[in-house]
Amino acid sequence: EAGVVQSPRYKIIEKKQPVAFWCNPISGHNTLYWYRQNLGQGPELLIRYENEEAVDDSQLPKDRFSAERLKGVDSTLKIQPAELGDSAVYLCASTPFGWSGAFFGQGTRLTVV
Amino acid sequence: GIQVEQSPPDLILQEGANSTLRCNFSDSVNNLQWFHQNPWGQLINLFYIPSGTKQNGRLSATTVATERYSLLYISSSQTTDSGVYFCAARDDKIIFGKGTRLHILP
Question: How confident is the model over A3-13, as pLDDT tens digits?
Answer without folding.
Answer: 999 999 999 99
